From TrEMBL:
Belongs to the uricase family. The active site is at K10 (charge relay system), T55 (charge relay system), H244 (charge relay system). It catalyses: urate + O2 + H2O = 5-hydroxyisourate + H2O2. The keyword Oxidoreductase applies. GO terms for biological process: purine nucleobase catabolic process; urate catabolic process. Pfam families: Uricase. O2 binds at T55, N242. InterPro entries: Uricase (IPR002042). This is Uricase. 5-hydroxyisourate binds at T55, D56, R173, V215, Q216, N242. Keywords: Oxidoreductase, Purine metabolism. Catalyzes the oxidation of uric acid to 5-hydroxyisourate, which is further processed to form (S)-allantoin. One of its GO terms (molecular function) is urate oxidase activity.
Amino acid sequence: MPLIRNSYGKGRVRIMRVKRDSARHEVRELSVQAMLSGDFDAAYTEGDNSKVVATDSIKNIVNIVARDHVGAENEEFAGLLAKYFLDRYDHVSGVDIAATETKWTRIAVDGAPHDHAFVLDGNGKPFVELSATREASRLVSGVTGLTFLKTTQSGWENYVFDEATTLKPTADRLFATAMDASWLWSSVPASYPRANAAVLAAALKVFAGTYSPGVQNTMYLMGEAVLAAVPEVAEITMACPNKHYLPIDLSPFGRGFDGQVFTPTDEPHGQIECTVGRG
Ligand SMILES: O=c1[nH]c(=O)c2[nH]c(=O)[nH]c2[nH]1
């Protein structure tokens, strides 16, 4: 039977590039699919893999090219990746790269775009919940999935080390979350939209501007700042998945292990929750 067409590669190679050669970091997060075509018929028809570049190696090459070009724009990155395969493997005749971007924009702190703290575009769904009887009511405003990230000023150290521990401590990691938060009103603010905006601004200012020794402490400090900024809020409840960005060790490929490329992961994630109130 004729083998009419074939191609193979690696899909959903998630890669975060952090350009950190100055205090002002730039982040580019992509999900990449890299597909190869060429002299691969024998792998299909004969079970002969001798010319097949393993898809695991294809993933490594995506990471290597990302590390070698942390500042390249998406279009340039696609070109550089294709060139890597075509230059290195004579029997590869075609490369198809498709990449979708997770777009981050800088958090504005007091109106100024922050150097290393970012929010996702088009972010977070606001909601309200009201429970009312004739005697009393309980009004809560909130947001689900408010996604933000910082590329430095975050660590995780001094936790329990025992036979279950494999994680290495670090004083510099990425911290990303998609926060669900709700705040209970104790009185009516002059403007709900303005007060809601002030809640999020106070929280994000602390996130951007304060070293995080752990998600737990940062959430508590964010809650404290919200209560200080908006007197009509009685308490705030937050739930933050710790969306791990795993540093990629490219030292086997002669590149530094230096915090410029990361694999974004959604699963499993830490899940940190707290409520901060007025005592
Ligand atoms: O901020 C964090 N809090 C944790 O409880 C935790 N646990 C872990 O493995 N990493 C982290 N990070």
